Amino acid sequence: MASYLENQIKDWHNRGIIADDVAAALLADIGRSGAAARDGDAKPFSFFRIVAIFAAISFAAAIVMFISANWEAIPRLAKVAGIMVLIAGGLIGGAVIGARGGRHARWLEEAAYLVAGAAYVGGVALVGQMYHLPGDIGQAMFGFALGLGIAGLAVRSHVLAAAALGAIAWWYLETPAPETLVDADFVIFAAFCAAGYALSRFGRMPWLRWVAAAAFLVGLVPFLFSVLEAIADFYEGLPDGARLAIWLALLAASLAGLWLARGAGGPAPAFLRRPETAFGAGLIALLALHVESGDLLPLLVVGPMTLGFALYALFTHGARSRTIRYVSYAVFVGEILFLYGETVASLLGTAGFFLAVGVTLTLIAGGIYWAERRFKRRAAIEEQADG
Amino acid sequence: MAEPARAKPFVVPAAVAATAVLCAILAWMIESRAQILREGAEIVLKSEPIDPRDLLRGHYVVLTYPAQQITGDVLAGLTAEAGMREPGRDVPVYVTFEAGPDGHHRPVAASLTKPDEGIFLRGTAPYLDGRTVTLFVDYGIGRFYTNEHRAPELEARMRAGGLTEIVIAVGADGTGQIKAFRQAGETIVTEPLY
């Protein structure tokens, strides 16, 4: 029974993509590693194997129970020695498994490294108990990061390197001033993340790059938070006129962007081909104007502006962009409900309010149905014209 | 795995080296503390449980020492030293101890720099400036880990006896290490070297 891969290799060989000797070598290698796997498949049930597995499980359970029952009685140095054996077994065993190769070698290798890393962390905790070491978990994280990082670098393990990066991010967040970027702590933290990135780059472990980036971002959170706070403070300190000008300028830019992006296609700048960006900027400006409606513009002005913006977006991009279309509907309906809640609700009472909302929503739904049919027709005509 | 498995160069020797490093870190942690217990000078500090009902948190006993509060003449030299500088957080402080007539050691001097003679403990002051009146120093001996069998007995004894004497082994660099518990001259617990 030839496998898919074997057929593929023969096909490549026939089409002259790979040379004769390469094809022969590949087929021979598949034959070797595949033979073992197929042997196993051919004998799915073996009483002897089941019994052997049960025996192994029983032995393992007995060992675990014996150790946990006598944990207190085991001399402390024996415990440490056991942990060192686990570290050695995990690291060296994992390296040997990885070097030998095979079907699940990469997963088994990482699993063995994980055991070694866990043993190291447990060992540090055990020594901390033995000698009543002070300090909390945040400070211990530095030692974990260092040890796991050295081991991860040595055996090029995803698991250990990722654990070290997580530990260093934890440690950095627990330092006295994680929001200042000009102290030794941050340099150490950044160097760790850079080392993780370098390992992913030169050790060809692409997945690790994202872990390094994520750890760095997590460490930056306090700093970003302080920046946001500074921006918010600055904004609060601005006079009303300046704040109004900021949001109106953003809204105007959004309107202009939407207008320019109308019908743009082909060789247009990126921002014109993505009118959703301009649309989003306009929504942010309107949201800010709503929040600030007590100080800047009254709702009586902001509300109709929002409705007008939604209609304008529908007019310019409703036919082309489904995102803009549905968000515009939602904004329109939401704004109507919001304005009702703010103004008419107090006049009408609850029952009358719901009646008014029902009538309005019916009208809007009718409008949307009409608009959708038009958009569909227009899209069909454009398609015909294009085709 | 979309990408082909590539051999990692030198992975087995590197694994052996990494094992050696990790085990060396653990061994160093152990030996640096065992050395203090073995060779360090001994001082005896009084310890007072603030609230005996709250002695045990998890599997460790919280110990507080009157010697953690430094005031008066002992502090004066230190604040004079610190007065010149910015207020500091987590400042390393060296406190020199001498034995009193009752056998308990008391702080007699405090300094920001390592003293040349005498028995001193290295601690950390969470906050220090020129106007500090009472200085709190953390010597890193505030916890005593123990197991669930020994803990209740220890707690009961400390509750009944009130004050307890803690024997501290002091390393050459001022690191303190809990060595034994005593109550009225009777040793309750002695810590093993390893």
Automatic annotation (TrEMBL), chain A:
Keywords associated with the record: Membrane, Transmembrane, Transmembrane helix
Matching InterPro entries: DUF2157
Transmembrane segments: 47-68, 80-99, 111-131, 143-172, 184-200, 207-232, 244-261, 297-315, 327-345, 351-371
Domain DUF2157: 11-160
A UniProt-annotated Pfam family: DUF2157
Protein's name in the database: DUF2157 domain-containing protein
Organism: Oceaniradius stylonematis
Taxonomic path: Bacteria, Pseudomonadati, Pseudomonadota, Alphaproteobacteria, Hyphomicrobiales
From TrEMBL, chain B:
Keywords on record: Membrane, Transmembrane, Transmembrane helix
Superkingdom as given in the UniProt entry: Bacteria
Membrane-spanning segments: 12-30
InterPro entries: GDYXXLXY (IPR025833)
Protein's name according to its UniProt entry: GDYXXLXY domain-containing protein
